Structures are given as C-alpha cells and as structure tokens.
C-alpha cells in the first residue's frame, strides 16, 4: 500500500472512530491493541492487515467497503482486497461464483454481437 493510500485509510479510520464517538483509547481497548497502533494507523504511519479489517469495521460500525471505496483505486486492487477478506474455506466457493458470473457476461456479450 502506498503512503498516500495509508494516509487516506487512516483518515477514514479517524472519521469512523469519531462518528462512533470513541477515543483512541476506547478503540484500542476494544481491539486489544495499543493506543500507539491506533495513532499510527490514523496518521498513515502504518496500516491494518486485511484479515483484521472486519473486526475494525464491526467495532467502528462501518461496512468494510467504507475503508476501500475511493474514486482512484484500481479495480483489480480493490477486487483482490475484497477476495482477501473471505476465509480460505469459503474462497473456492466465491471464486466459482465469480467465474460463473464472468462466463455468463462473456456469453451475453458474444451473443449480442
């Protein structure tokens, strides 16, 4: 993740924390991490590991995509980030669904030509 993206993620985390009317200390306590980590994430010094993001989203009462949706994010990077959110035991199922959707779209495109 680039420094600019870390900074934007940190800004979203800070906004979500404030929307939840939480201090950094309260958030750190709920997450079981130090307040310094929260501060580093909010300032863009460090970032959140993708597997940890669902817990942050739950505690901050935001959908996971709140932290990802940006106008300039590469769609492939966004798709990979979303796929990384799925537990390994469900990933094959999700990939099969995506493949079926892609094949259906491809067939419709071919048939309309």
Describe, in plain words, how this protein is organized in 3D:
Helices cover 66% and strands 0% of the residues. By secondary structure, it is mainly α. The protein is built from 6 helices and no strands. The chain has 2 domains: 3-67, 434 Repressor (Amino-terminal Domain), CATH 1.10.260.40; 75-112.
Largest sheet: none
| Domain unit count | 2
Q: Name the CATH architecture of the largest domain.
A: Orthogonal Bundle
CATH class of the largest domain: Mainly Alpha
Oligomer: single chain
Strand content: under 5%
How far apart the termini lie comes to: 40 Å
User: What is the 3D form?
Assistant: elongated
What are the secondary-structure elements, in order, as H or E?
A: HHHHHH
SSE class? mainly alpha
Number of helices: 6
Q: CATH topology of the largest domain, which one?
A: 434 Repressor (Amino-terminal Domain)
Superfamily (CATH H level) name of the largest domain? lambda repressor-like DNA-binding domains
Give the overall pLDDT as a whole number: 86
Give the beta-strand count: 0
Rg, rounded, reads 17 Å
Spans where pLDDT lies below 50 across 5 or more residues:
none
Tell me roughly what share of residues is in helical segments.
55-70%
